[in-house]
Task: structure prediction
Amino acid sequence: MSVEEPIAQEPRTRPCRRCAVEINAASARCPFCGARQVKRQPILGWWGALVCLILVAAAVVVTRQIVIARPHHYFAFFRGSNLAALVPTGYQDLNLTSAHGTALVGWADPNESQDAETVQATLPAAASPQARMLALAATLRNKPGVALSYRGPVNVVFPGGLVVPELEYTTHLGPTAVFAFDACSRTIAVTVTISDTSRASLDGLSAVLPQSANALCNGPAFSNQDRADAAIPLTLPK
Result:
């Protein structure tokens, strides 16, 4: 039985990049002059780095457009003695006051006063929601610095089929949307006003806030009963 001996192969060689002496092809440096045999180059090169920068910039722009186009809001439920509504988290109560027969609440972003929501309910509902929107449009049309939507008052449909007029206008601070409807068997006029610095954000809020606001029919602001407590004397003791 014969065993073939392995044939030793000569190592591959190549000339040094600097001194041209034949050296081992696997050598990183020339053993004679010490010259590096592999030229240092960036992993990507100039063109690769430029392509990466372009892709990163495009990703930032696309992400920003997605965030602006579809803003995400979180809401807290408010229920007072006269009104109920959803409020964007982070908004602070403006502590608004009104005369008896009208309930008024409002909230705003403490860092941006234009980002705000107000809900007003008035007894009695003196005019229809459409008439109130037309009157508001006529008032704003003559107000300097206010640009009304070219559509004027338009009707939107809330869940359940309630048709509600909406009016949009813009000032130097940003866009605003106003919604009007009647509550409590059409006895109380409700107006919801939403403003924001971003049109896309306003559209997102307008799809949620107006339909969640309502008046509490038995609220003290709408009661005809004397609100004074009979147990408390009206005159101070002498």
